[in-house]
Amino acid sequence: MRFGRKSTFEARFAPISDRLYAYGMALTRDRDAAADLFQDCVVRAISANTVPIDDRAFRAWLFAIMRNLWIDRLRRDQRAQSFEALLSDDGAGMAQMPMPLEAVVVNQLAVREAFACLSLQHRDVLALIDIAGFRYEEAADMLGVPKGTVMSRVSRARQALLALLADDRVMELPRRKGRIDNE
């Protein structure tokens, strides 16, 4: 099937766009890179000669396009820098925030930081299942692995995330010198 009109693509794409962008954010961990990846995905989808007719297949096809584009970028960037340097994130900027944050914001930041510390495989599978909302079967098709492999990866990824968020890993930030406590 080829798109005859732009509105047909827009109508099918609109309900998926937010999740697709969120998946791009999970993969890249950067708003600008996610926006670029999202745009490249849209361009690739619009210019495709054949498009899945079924809505579920269409959604999975879009996420697979984004994932493949991201993998292509990783491979391209790998020539310029090592793979480990590309995936590492020391979080130094977040640890030096001068103002105390509400518990909800702190928790969100902690989960994002812990997510960033997960392995590529764990981030990838959690992004598909927990962020993008795919079923195990759909994620298995996109990743090219059996459903059971996806299920075990999700389980191990969630356990790794939980371990990273455990209380014994939380460190109190040092107080800034010269700061007056109002306690």
Task: Produce the secondary structure layout.
Layout: H1 6-28, H2 31-46, H3 55-78, H4 83-87, H5 92-95, H6 103-117, H7 120-131, H8 136-143, H9 147-164
Helix pairs in contact: 1-2, 1-3, 1-7, 2-3, 3-8, 7-9, 8-9
Description:
The protein is mainly alpha-helical and 183 residues long. Helix content is 68%, strand content 0%. It is built from nine helices and no strands. Helix 1 crosses helix 7 (120-131) and helix 7 packs across helix 9 (147-164). The longest helix is centred in the middle third of the chain and has 24 residues, at 55-78. The protein is globular and about 60 Å long. It starts with 5 loop residues before the first helix and ends in a 19-residue tail after the last helix. Mean pLDDT is 78; it is low at 1-6, 82-89 and 91-101.
Key phrases:
mainly alpha; 183 residues; globular; disordered N terminus
Describe the biggest sheet? Answer: none
How many individual helices? 9
User: Portion of residues in helices?
Assistant: 55-70%
Distance between the termini: 67 Å
Q: Return the string of H and E elements.
A: HHHHHHHHH
Describe the structure in brief.
This protein is an all-alpha fold and 183 residues long. The chain has nine helices and no strands.
